[in-house]
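lol ok so funny story. i was supposed to be doing the assay writeup but got distracted and ended up predicting the structure for this chain instead. priorities right. anyway since i did it might as well share w the group, maybe its usefull for someone
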Amino acid sequence: MSTQGPASAVARLERDAIGLAPVLFQSITHMAPAAAVAFSIIFAVTYAGGATPLAVVLALIACLFVAISIGQLARHLPSAGGLYTYNARALHPTVGFFVAWGFMLAEPLVAPLLYLIFGNVIGVYLTSHFNTPTWLWRRLQW
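and the output, tada:
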């Protein structure tokens, strides 16, 4: 019979289990939707006008605060669950459950919405700068 208590049965993350290259490429592929943020600046200009650079700097500061907070949480609560773990431990396991499912439902929407914005920007650019007919890049409407 085992003499170890329930505290030793808790699985811990292994230190240095993965190297720099896998972490770097996972981070890059997960940050790719940041291009959607860059394309959203096009829409911000219509509302903010000359204040757009200030709005971008303020958004950058807010993002840095969030990144620093997540980094601090990761230092104190090392877990592969990420935001699920932080919410489950800080608030309630049910909140963590909904956070995890929210991410699972939102992630598949990021790429298609990015492609919609990108397609619209490219279509307007081709039409206005090169006078390309819209039937080259737009689906036929029946």
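DSSP finds five helices and no strands in the chain. The mean pLDDT is 79.
back to the writeup now i swear
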